[in-house]
Structure formats: structure tokens, C-alpha cells
Amino acid sequence: MNELRNFLMVSVLMFVMAVSLPATAEMSKKKEHSYSGPGHQKMSHGKSSKTGHGGHHKSGPKWKQTLTDSQKKQADTMHLNLKKSMSVLKAQKKLKKVELINLVIKDDPDTNTIHDKINEIIDLKREIMRIKYDHMLEMRGMLTSEQRLSFDMEHLSQARKGKGHGGGHH
């Protein structure tokens, strides 16, 4: 039984890594970013959109429209670093969830071990949130005061709608 469980955990981890690493490599090759210009664009988080992030104007919120070439390049680098660190943490979180299920379905599940695994998952979620919000602060720090105002308004609007900052970036 333990051999089967270990095989399943290793298989899931290999699958997750096989899926996330090529996506990270593809992002590093990609020169065009969602800030490149107006109109129909391929978004950096894999969604094709005519309205940009969040359904704003055709080319996205005002702060994105006003980025300089230097800011765009800086944002691209920040987003690549974010994706790299997030892909590893998300893969670890998926593996921990599989381990948790395996603990629950055991013939004699141990509540303390299950609670410890839950705490490991919560620790990973906490780290993911910290990285996301550190990234937001880093992005905000490179903006001019006018761009920051638009950036802040966009995020306040998302928070009011209950979207928060869960799935993608800005």
C-alpha cells in the first residue's frame, strides 16, 4: 500500500512539474507581453482578450496604457520571476493536497498527521500570497504617481467585486 501511495505521489509531482516547467520556459522566450499595445492580445496568463485585464478599455487600464518601454521591460522581468517562483510553490501545494488525501483514505487515518499536512498546505498558501502581494508592491513602486493612482483604483475595484488578487496578476 505504501509503495502504491509513493508511486502515486511521485507520479503527480512529475506530472505537475512537466506541466509547469514548459510554461515557464515558454514565458521566458516570449518577448511580446500584454502591455505591448492595444487591441486583441494574448495575455501573459494564457487568456486571449480584446479588453485586456479586468475588462477595461480595449488596451486595459490607464496605468498599463501609459507604461514607458523601460517600465514594460521591467514589468516583463518582474512577471517572469513571479511565474517562476509561483510554479514551484503551486506544484508543491498540489503534491501536498494529494498527500493529504492519501492520509485521509488510509485504513487507520491519524488526525494529528492530517492536521500537520493541512498546516503545510496553509504555509504554502501563505507564501504564495506573500509573493503575490510583494510583486504588487514592486509593480506599484515602479509607477509614476499618476500610474499608481490608476493601479490603486483598479485593485480597489477588484476588491469591491470580490476578485481580490487570487488568480492572475493585476
Structural write-up:
There is one protein chain. This protein is mostly helical. It has one domain (2-160). It is 68% helix and 2% strand. Strands 1-2 form a two-stranded antiparallel sheet. A hairpin with a 5-residue loop joins strand 1 and strand 2 (48-49). Helix 3 runs antiparallel to helix 4 (111-141). It is elongated and about 60 Å long. The protein starts with a helix and ends in a 10-residue tail after the last helix. The model is unreliable at 23-57 (pLDDT under 50).
Which helices and strands appear, and what pairs or packs with what?
Blueprint: H1 2-29, E1 41-42, E2 48-49, H2 62-65, H3 69-104, H4 111-141, H5 145-160
Antiparallel strand pairs: 1-2
Helix pairs in contact: 1-3, 3-4
- How many beta strands in the DSSP annotation? 2
Alpha-beta content class:
mainly alpha
* Helix run count: 5
Overall helicity: 55-70%
How would you state the average pLDDT, rounded?
A: 76
Characterize the main sheet.
Answer: 2 strands, antiparallel
Radius of gyration, CA atoms, in whole angstroms: 19 Å
How many domain regions? 1
Task: Note poorly predicted spans.
Answer: 23-57
Net shape: elongated
- Strand proportion, as a percent range, falls in under 5%
- The end-to-end span amounts to 45 Å
What's the helix-strand series? HEEHHHH
Strand order of the largest sheet: 1-2
